[in-house]
Amino acid sequence: MTTSVSRPAGSGGGSPPRPRVLAALLGATRARVLVRVAVRDEATTSDLVGELEVSAATVSHHTAVLRESALITSRRDGGSVRHTITPLGLSLLGAHGLPGARRTC
């Protein structure tokens, strides 16, 4: 009888690159939103629309899911919504070796 052993991401054995693993977990666009919020002090919905070249509705949908998952926080500032990464979001990025992981909250 043989036993199969799972290896954590990054442990060799031909595992996929870590950004791909994060995209598989969150979805490609949602992962991009999280990384973009992390590399800035804060990002508005408009900032993300311009940088990611997706619609405002798409950004709003993905930021809502990230907020509900406690990976970002959002606050209204006049006509804008400003998004910042949470410690949990930073930890997730750090586990995947992605940008923004070293920023402090």
Describe this structure in words.
Residues 2-13 have low confidence and may be disordered. This protein has helices spanning 18-26, 28-39, 45-52, 56-68, 87-95; strands at 43-44, 72-77, 80-85. The chain starts with 17 loop residues before the first helix and ends in a 10-residue tail after the last helix. It is built from five helices and three strands. Strands 1-3-2 form a three-stranded antiparallel β-sheet. With 105 residues, it is of the alpha+beta class.
Largest sheet geometry: 3 strands, antiparallel
Class computed from helices, strands and strand pairing: alpha+beta
Question: What is the spatial order of strands in the main beta sheet?
Answer: 1-3-2
Continuous helix count? 5
Task: State the distance separating the first and last CA atoms.
Answer: 50 Å
- State the shape: globular
Rounded average pLDDT? 82
Q: Which band does the percent of strand residues land in?
A: 5-15%
